């Protein structure tokens, strides 16, 4: 019988003996067995298994976007794999509920046996961050050394290769920059969009001034708030302002890619743009859940350790809270919502462009 057709036992296929023998309690080694250390080990091992699957799926999506062109059918594949990552991330967040069944006092029964082991030493999680697009210069450091210094030379080389190559963010940015509908024959999207924004602004100011249920002071306050939003629109209408914001670190996504993402979001109901819109939404979901996990992790550490330093030498809660706020990768895609306008103000697309964005059969 061919080897590939031979039977295999469940235990052999899943390598269960290796997995089930992989829980070695340090507290037992030190003759002070702590019951909850078993759960602590298993939860973190499960995290690493899920990280492996997430990395597997991200690598496949990056490959689909890596050759300069992306087939429409591949967008659907990318959406389904990112959707799976999103579902896994929800499990990662929920696992914190399980680990919180270890009370602070129970954790202290074995915490000192873990030094200096720390979640900061998770190589797969660092691969995940870099693969998505977290750059070294944007990373918050918890020591004077590089974040990669805790890893072997071989692992550092892998991280360096990931950092110098195209991340998921880079590939998505290049894909957005290739969007062909920004300048379509006689239709100038940005010019028409600016007209619509101005009309919307004038209408909002008019509605505020007409309102008889608020005071003049409140009216002025609301008009001033509109002016603050208008300042954000200026980065869309002025390429130089956008570039200045990138140089200051306030934005990451290129000007052209930002305008493309805006067009896709505004005209999401056009059949040909539906899948690109869903793809961008999955990136936002993934980014949001990673931030949620970081925040949830920080709260768990605060609950368990208070203001104690982490086993890896970080400030613990304070460091983790900072990373949740500042280690977001696709923040610019979230900000597209600031630039959206009601459908009633959307510029009408030329018929020939609508035809291009539709599914036509001859």
What does this molecule look like?
The protein is mostly helical and 362 residues long. The chain has helices spanning 10-14, 16-20, 26-29, 37-64, 72-99, 104-108, 123-132, 153-164, 168-177, 189-210, 216-237, 239-247, 255-266, 271-305, 317-326, 331-335, 351-356; strands spanning 183-184, 187-188. The protein is built from 17 helices and 2 strands. Strands 1-2 form a two-stranded antiparallel sheet. Strand 1 and strand 2 form a beta hairpin. Helix 7 (123-132) packs parallel to helix 8. The chain starts with 9 loop residues before the first helix and ends in a 6-residue tail after the last helix.
The percentage of residues in β strands lies in under 5%
Provide the gyration radius in Å: 25 Å
Major sheet size, sense and barrel closure: 2 strands, antiparallel
Low-confidence spans: none
Q: Determine the N-to-C terminus distance.
A: 51 Å
- The strand order across the widest sheet is 1-2
Helix content bin: 55-70%
Order of helices and strands: HHHHHHHHHEEHHHHHHHH
Treating each run of at least 4 consecutive H or I residues as one helix, how many helices?
Answer: 17
Overall geometric form: globular
Number of strands: 2
Could you say which structural class the secondary elements and strand pairing correspond to? Answer: mainly alpha
Mean pLDDT: 90
């Amino acid at each position: 019988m061919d080897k590939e057709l031979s039977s295999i036992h469940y235990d052999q296929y899943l390598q269960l003996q290796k997995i089930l023998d992989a829980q070695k309690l340090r507290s037992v080694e030190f003759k002070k067995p702590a019951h909850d250390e078993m759960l602590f080990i298993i939860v973190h091992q499960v995290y690493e298994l899920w990280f492996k699957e997430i990395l597997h799926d991200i690598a496949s999506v990056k490959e689909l976007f890596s050759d300069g062109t992306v087939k429409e059918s591949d967008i659907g594949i990318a959406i389904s794999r990112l959707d799976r990552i999103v579902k896994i991330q929800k499990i990662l967040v929920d696992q914190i509920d399980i680990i919180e069944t270890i009370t602070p006092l129970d954790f202290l029964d074995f915490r000192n046996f873990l030094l200096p082991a720390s979640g900061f030493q998770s190589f797969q999680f660092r691969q995940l961050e870099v693969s998505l697009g977290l750059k070294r210069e944007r990373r918050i450091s918890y020591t004077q050394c590089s974040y990669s210094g805790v890893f072997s030379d071989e692992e550092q080389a892998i991280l360096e290769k990931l950092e110098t190559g195209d991340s998921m963010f880079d590939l998505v940015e290049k894909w957005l920059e290739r969007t062909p509908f920004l300048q379509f024959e006689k239709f100038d999207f940005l010019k028409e969009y600016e007209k619509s924004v101005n009309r919307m602004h004038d209408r909002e100011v008019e509605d505020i001034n007409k309102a008889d249920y608020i005071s003049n002071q409140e009216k002025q306050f609301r008009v001033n708030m509109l002016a603050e939003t208008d300042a954000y629109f200026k980065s869309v209408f002025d390429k130089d302002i956008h570039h200045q914001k990138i140089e200051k670190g306030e934005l990451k996504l290129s000007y052209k890619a930002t305008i493309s993402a805006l067009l896709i979001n505004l005209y999401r109901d056009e059949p040909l743009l539906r899948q690109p819109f869903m793809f961008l939404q999955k990136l936002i979901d993934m980014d949001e859940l990673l931030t949620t996990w970081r925040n949830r992790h920080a709260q768990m550490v605060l609950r368990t350790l208070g203001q104690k330093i982490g086993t890896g030498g970080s400030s613990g809660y304070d460091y983790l809270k900072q990373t949740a706020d500042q280690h977001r990768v696709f923040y610019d895609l979230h900000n597209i919502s600031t630039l959206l306008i009601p459908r009633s103000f959307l510029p009408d697309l030329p018929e020939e462009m609508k035809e291009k964005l539709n599914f036509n059969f001859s």
